[in-house]
Design a protein that fits this description.
The chain is an alpha/beta fold and 157 residues long. It has a single domain, classed as Rossmann fold. Helix content is 26%, strand content 15%. A six-stranded parallel sheet has the order 3-2-1-4-5-6. α6 links the parallel β5 and β6.
Length: 157
């Protein structure tokens, strides 16, 4: 048999669609313990944690963060939160939620291009704090500018 005849009789490979696995990064939300004296609010309740974790998000809460608002670590862990002892681990999260404005020390703990949501109190912010936030290219959302559908500013427990 000639070489040409052999090639013609050889079955051609068939194209086949293969599933490509895509790695989905789980978005994480960090809740550090408030260090401001007399601050007893927390930006998230255990019920909200349950909604977030059931939607596939990871919530990292610093141990004791809810104590002043009468929420215990157990309340959060039973709702799906990861309780962490190491404050810097909370600041590794993609999104950081706080009630009080970020201190300079907390700003130093932020990663580049993180999303932070907290009270911002612009007139009280130092120029240094603003410069450091801009250097880290964070996206900052101020609670005092968040309103519901009726125009009422959101509040915390």
């Amino acid at each position: 048999m000639s070489e040409k005849a052999q090639l013609e009789n050889t079955p051609a490979p068939l194209e086949e669609l293969q599933e490509i696995s895509r790695k989905h990064k789980q978005i994480s939300i960090g809740i550090p313990k408030e260090l401001v004296e007399d601050e007893s609010r927390i930006p998230i309740t255990p019920e909200a944690v349950e909604l977030l974790t059931s939607s596939g998000l990871r919530v990292n809460i610093e141990s004791g963060a809810g104590d002043a608002a009468d929420y215990k670590n157990l309340d959060y862990s039973e709702s799906g939160a990861n309780i962490v002892e190491n404050r810097s681990e909370v600041f590794e999260s993609d999104i950081i939620l706080k009630v009080a404005p970020f201190t300079l020390a907390e700003i130093e703990m932020l990663k580049k291009q993180q999303l932070i949501i907290s009270s911002f109190q612009m007139p009280k912010q130092s120029e240094e704090a603003l410069r450091r936030l801009m250097q880290k290219k964070v996206t900052a959302i101020a609670f005092e500018f968040l309103k519901d559908d009726v125009g009422i500013i959101l509040s915390f427990k």
